Structure formats: structure tokens, C-alpha cells
Known about the structure:
This protein is 70% helix and 0% strand. It contains 13 helices and no strands.
Amino acid sequence: MKHNKELDFFRAILIGLVILIHIVNFGNIYPSIKSSILAFIMPAFLVITGYLVNIDKSIKAFANYILQIWLPYMIFVIGYAVLSLYLPVRDGIEVFNIPTILDILFVKSIGPYWFFHAMIVCGILYYATFHILHKFDVTAKYSFFASALILVSMFTPFLCIKTATYYFIGVGIRVYAGDFSRVYKKSLWPIVPFVFLITQPTFQDWGAISILVCVFSFLCFASYFHSFLKGRVKVVVEYIGRNTLPIYIFHPIFTMLSKFILPFFRFEPSGVLHSSFTVLICIVGSICIGKFMDWSHLSCLLGRRRVLR
């Protein structure tokens, strides 16, 4: 599959917004903007993720892919849980025991790491249905995959159908369109309906068609802005987009610490400077951690030879 550099640009924007909405001070000052961002960033990430997952692998190779998601998920969910006992986070735990840990690992993940849980569940169902039914045509396999997602979301606590829908759409783009760029057109104009929809609380539910419209509108106008990137800036932004995984894993360390440097930004009450500085530190700090893990071979703790791409 041909590498689409615009996907790296999309992911760079999305990971920057993920960091932004995890900055407590920003959310306190701009709750409506935070809600608008929350409404579309993870659905967009899920669509892209569903498209990028490759199931043309042996069981062993795919199990290794799942392990590479599970290990950081397990380590950082537990780490986040421990920190939440001592730091002021909104979705932390009150007691650290085996039932609580099993609950946050397998049922209701805490912190930003729920995304990995969704990737694992959807990925396993995707691989299983397409390989068990390998003799069926693609529409039959895709239909059984949809059915599996629906049944798991209906009868178990492991998956939310609203989350699964966007992953499912990404898979559909892969199996039917093949090239992700075929589902959007480079244009600035889709930013108009995007702004109208995303700023209205009534249209911000993931189960509403409006969010799907916002996701594809975002792809269109983000693609338009990508064409303006040149030289070193383009290289850096695309590098960030290729390395959203370590940034996603490690950024909560820095967003938590950002609360302690907030007093140094009291001179700027809008919170923009503090938020911009935090986003920058999160990206640079996360990549530096990734480089250190690769250099020290500690990346094997996450089931990987290298953390950075």
C-alpha cells in the first residue's frame, strides 16, 4: 500500500489537538472549544487507524501487533492509575487493588489510553472475521465484521458501538477504496460546514451523522493546508505524524507536569501561551523519551525493536 504523506499531516494535527484537550487549564478556560475538539478528533483517528491496520499477516505476526498495543496499554494504564491516587486527575481511581486494575484494563479504561483498548478489540474482531471467512467475498466478510462489532457492543462491556463505527468505516475504506486519498478532495470550502456543525453541542454526539461529516470535512480542508507546507517544516510535521504512537503514550506525563508550571504563566491570563508551550513540550519530550528507549533498547518493554519510526 502506497504511503500517503497527507495521513502523517492529518495525524500530526490530531495528536496536537489530543494534547491540547488534555491540558486541564485550557479545558477550564475554553470548555466549549474543548467540547468541539473532543467531538471529532478521536472519530477521525479511529477512521485513519481502521484504514491503516494490515490483517494480511500470519496469526503469529498479528498477535505480535496486538502485543505491541497491549504492552504500552497495560503499563501506562496502571501507571496512570497509580499517579491518579496522588495527582488531581478527573478520571482516576480511589483505591488500588486487583478488581479495580482488572476493571480499568479490560472494561473501562482510564485516561487517554481507552483508544488502545478499542484498537485491540476491533483489531481482533477484524482479523478473526476476515480470516475465518477467507473464502467468502469481501462484502460478506465486511458484513460479518459489522455483526461481530454489534454483538460485542450489545452483550459485553468491552466495546462501544459509537467507537467501533468509525474504526469500521476506516476498514471499509481500505477494503473497498484501497487508497485513503480517494475518500476526500483537497478543498478549503468544507471548513464552512465543519465550523457550523462542530460548534453546536446538539451535533457533537459521536452517534450523529454530523460527526462523520465533520471528519471528512476535516480531511478535505486539512489536505488543502498540507499543500502549503514546504521544506524543513513539512519534514518536521510529517515526522510528528509518523510518530503519534509514542506521543500519545507519553504526553500525559507532560500534561500532568504542566499544572506545576502554570504559576509561571499567570502574566498571560488567556492560557494560550501556557497551552502552546505544553503542546510543544509534550511533543518534544515524548519524542526524546522514544529516542532514549530506542538507544537503550528499552523499547523491548513495549514489545518493539524501535519506538520511533
